[in-house]
Amino acid sequence: MNKIKRNLTGQDKLLHSFFGNIILVVSFLVFVLFMKWWEALAFAFFWVLSIGISKELFDKEVKGTFIDWWDIVASVTPYPIVKRINKEANG
Length: 91
What we know:
With about 90 residues, this protein is mostly helical. It is built from five helices and no strands. Helix 2 packs across helix 3, helix 2 packs antiparallel against helix 5 and helix 3 packs antiparallel against helix 4.
């Protein structure tokens, strides 16, 4: 559990969580117009994961950095949880 908390700290993880959650909610609201709510939630979750993986691949290929799998985890983790982990880590 401590490893998870440690890997979800930092400003970068807060940004991934914040924008990932926004994309999740907006895509869910769009998808729910065309399908059942549980299908819309699954598609929205898949959409956020796809965007997160694409962003990490872009960073690796274009920026020459590494794939940070914890950025992808942060993008689907609810923002209040990541915010609380960061608050606890910073005192």
